[in-house]
Specification:
378 residues, single chain, globular, 2 domains, 13 helices, eight-stranded parallel sheet, four-stranded antiparallel sheet, TIM Barrel, 21% strand, alpha/beta
Length: 378
């Protein structure tokens, strides 16, 4: 069975020859170890072995986010930025000119860490929400560029599948705030939060319709729901801020013959009912306790017939566990994920390393994941 067949069989609830295994963002396709960029951590020699392992020993899922060419923004954009460089870091200051005043934000990126730190967020108080809402409502326009997805399809062949990476309404709104401010505003300013979400939803719906018209039948990763999960917000607000919006997105994806995968870190026990109400095809990363609050076997037993389950291996376990203990950890995840009846299971980490230098232990543990999945047969 090819990697592509194995992944599609999982998504469609058909038998597979062995468990699928994905290294999440690390797929041996999206990263180029010969890229000389100063901020590109994957050009460090310590990464070469893992990128080669991902290329040759995993069921590759390549995430892409189609963009718009020549978008019509109705004239000069309200957004501007200024970037400055320091010793080992880059700082970017953003500005949005709104009819009610200026909003500012700031990001920092370091050369040895593959992430962007949002150190100042656009919305810091009620007045900033009103400024943001005073901006003209726009939806994505222009020509949707799907070339990267189509090229990935061609390049991957039978070695994997390409997939669409998508932020839902709350995934667009929550990062406008610091997490502390977001939880306070979401709890105390329901009307304004719904206005922000309603505006974001219009963009998301239009974007998904554009993608599904050009790229039917794809797997989607829908990011954002975790912002409203306990302990950040109570379940009633997950229902109001996530379920009410993402159900529409899931249905649009499935109408095109696609598959909707909900991405939500952390606790699931009090929101899994709402997630099931949305009718998704898959769920990731199903974090084990103590990072989450339910086991993989519990989710599999109750919801496995309807969901393909992705994940269950913590990045912290890959990076810090002793090898013997990690081997048993992977065996348990495979046993729980593949036991009994169910739609499917893909062994996968909850995240990828972000440091420039990859440890020998981390490489060895990824290798264990690939080998154990390969050697588990039905």
């Amino acid at each position: 069975m090819t990697n592509r067949e194995r992944l599609l069989n999982n998504l469609n609830g058909r038998p597979v020859d062995r468990p699928a295994v994905s290294f999440y963002e690390l797929n041996g396709y999206s990263h180029n170890p010969d890229n000389p960029g100063e901020y590109y951590i994957y050009n460090h020699p310590s990464w070469r072995g893992l990128l080669e392992l991902a290329k040759n020993a995993t069921d590759k899922i390549v995430l892409n986010s189609p963009r718009y060419i020549n978008p019509d923004n109705g004239g000069k954009s309200a957004y501007s930025s200024v970037t400055s460089h320091g010793d080992g870091f880059t700082e970017t200051v953003y500005k949005i000119d709104t009819p009610k005043g200026e909003l500012t934000g700031k990001d920092i990126r370091y050369t040895d860490v593959d992430t962007v730190w949002h150190v100042e967020h656009y919305i810091k108080n009620i007045g900033d929400i009103e400024k943001y809402l005073s901006l003209p409502e726009t939806v994505e326009t222009g020509e949707l560029d799907v070339s990267r997805v189509l090229k990935a399809d061609e390049d991957l062949g039978d070695s994997g599948i390409s997939a669409i990476d998508l932020s839902d309404a709350i995934g667009l709104v929550a990062p406008l705030f610091s997490m502390e401010d977001f939880t306070v505003f979401a709890l105390t300013e329901n009307k304004l939060m719904r206005e922000l979400l309603d505006r974001a939803q219009k963009k998301v719906v239009k974007h998904v319709k554009n993608i599904t018209e050009r790229l039917p039948g794809r797997l989607y990763r829908i990011c954002g729901p975790e912002y409203a999960s306990p302990p950040y917000l109570p379940p009633r607000l997950f229902h109001e801020y996530v379920t009410a919006y993402d159900t529409e997105i899931v249905k649009l994806i499935q109408k095109s013959g696609g598959y909707a995968r909900i991405h939500s870190h952390g606790n699931l026990s009090k929101i899994i009912g709402d997630i099931m109400t949305m009718g998704p095809d898959a769920l990731d990363p199903v974090e084990p306790p103590p990072q989450g609050d339910v086991t993989l076997s519990e989710i599999k037993e109750k919801y496995g017939k309807d969901l393909v389950l992705f994940g269950n291996i913590e990045l912290s376990e890959i990076e810090t566990m002793e090898t013997e203990a990690f081997t048993e950890r992977v065996k348990r995840a495979l046993f729980e994920g593949m036991s009994g009846e169910g739609r499917g299971f893909v062994l996968m980490p909850t995240a990828a390393p972000i440091g420039r230098v990859l440890s020998d232990r981390t490489y060895r543990h990824y290798e264990i994941m690939a080998n154990l999945a390969r050697d588990t047969h039905y």
